[in-house]
Design brief:
By secondary structure, the chain is of the alpha/beta class. It contains 10 helices and 5 strands, in the order ααβαβαααβαβααβα.
Length: 200
């Protein structure tokens, strides 16, 4: 018998109610599916979806590759930190997809911890590489060895991504499968948190 048919799907309204005013914040490497999964997750939860990278480009009036080229990574990261803080403070509840390096910033992690639930979309290096090859606008991979660069970045970042509230495996299944996994993980986390809060 198919397990998926016998396992009840978490109730959307219950997840929304337990989430309250908080944001669902997707973190992880480029190519992990944060934007694609995020849009579908937002639709399922009837929440707004915001891509932090798009908001950064709008605020700067430049594309992210242009920001990197003309202003450098440090200025991009500072703008990223400010944009994410603004989105969490003024537009939650929402589903927020962040850039691959955003969660590395301690101030951003603290703000997410205060105002959201963080979900690490974890993908294997081969899966990430297959996905990012489809797009050429990844400034940090404009190197002689993009795959080696990605693997080094992943090794450096994984310990910090692991600090997220939840980890969901992003694999080569349809995005809706990852969305189902994310909603189930959110439901479990939010129920456990509610139970802890209710315990005298």
């Amino acid at each position: 018998m198919d397990i998926a048919e016998t396992t009840p799907r978490p109730d959307r309204d219950a997840v929304r109610a337990a989430l309250g005013p908080r944001a669902v914040v997707l973190v992880g490497m480029m190519g992990s599916g944060k934007s694609s999964v995020g849009r579908r997750l937002a639709t399922r939860l009837a929440l707004p979806f915001v891509d932090a990278d798009v908001e950064i480009e709008t605020a700067a009036g430049m594309t992210i590759p242009e920001i990197f080229a003309q202003r450098g990574e440090a200025e991009f990261r500072d703008g990223e930190r400010r944009v994410i803080a603004r989105l969490l403070s003024t537009r939650a509840p929402l589903v927020l997809a962040t850039g691959g390096g955003a969660f590395m910033n301690a101030e951003t992690r603290a703000r997410i911890g205060e105002l959201g639930v963080s979900v690490w979309l974890k993908a294997e290096p081969d899966v990430l590489m297959r996905r990012v090859r489809k797009r050429s606008n990844r400034p940090l991979l404009q190197t002689a060895d993009p795959e080696g660069t990605l693997r080094r970045m992943l090794a450096e970042r994984e310990p910090t991504y692991a600090l997220a509230d939840l980890t969901v495996i992003s694999r080569d299944d349809p995005h809706d499968v990852v969305v189902d996994d994310t909603i189930a993980a959110l439901a479990g986390h939010l129920n456990a948190t509610s139970a802890e809060t209710a315990t005298p």
